[in-house]
Amino acid sequence: MRGQGLTVLILAGGRSRRMGQDKIWLPLGVDRVSLIERVVARVRPLAAEFLFSANAPEPFDALMSHLRDQGVPAQVVPDLYPGAGPLAGLHAGLSVARCELLLAVAGDMPFINPALVAHLVALAPGFDVVIPELPHPRTGEAVKEPLHALYRQSCLVAVAARLAAGERQMVGFLPDVRVRTVGPDETREFDPDFRSFFNVNSPEDRDAAEQMLAGELSGET
Question: Max CA-CA distance within the chain?
Fold first, then answer.
């Protein structure tokens, strides 16, 4: 039986092709805090444990040591299904998580909203997955965002079965579990401009993130 609280799994194993370098360690803002450290700082008040989905633990040593000094368990979890993408990262995280609930977030989302995360947690009783939906930028159709979602440890069997069958899509196992979607209107109550889901994929995204951080510092929305 897993414990109470929230495990935060940060998916940090992407190849950063559009950025041209390992983007999660890029410094942002006037304080030059790295992208992944900003993600950690945003959810730190809600986390009982941090897991980092990556296959090379050494770059995370200093960050994990800092978290442990604060009394927060932290470890790197390598994929048990190499090459299977974020779904394999979720599987690895669920396999070792100390808490019943796990928040999986991409390591390039520096504007995660703790109030929205707390809302997902509040919706979790009775469900295996709580997942936000965003309006598609072109069609307006509601689209699930699995890289900013809450997963119960009970998902592990379904995730493992999909991986064993060759499934790679993060949402592929959702028909096998109990899912609570959080539609765009509900999400807007906590995050009106969906800033939580902005990810830094390219140099242009990095410039936009710098502008948003400067706006936060000056008190602009």
Answer: 50
Strands 3-11 and 99-106 turn out to be parallel
pLDDT greater than 90 at residue 211: no
CATH of 3-218, picked from 3.40.50.720, 3.40.50.1580, 3.90.550.10, 3.30.479.10, is 3.90.550.10
pLDDT of the residue at 19: 46
Greater pLDDT, 206 or 216: 206
**Rounded CA gap, 156 and 128, in Å?**
10
The token pair at 7 is 């495990």
Beta strands per DSSP E along the chain: 3-11, 27-28, 33-34, 49-53, 74-77, 99-106, 129-135, 142-144, 148-152, 179-182
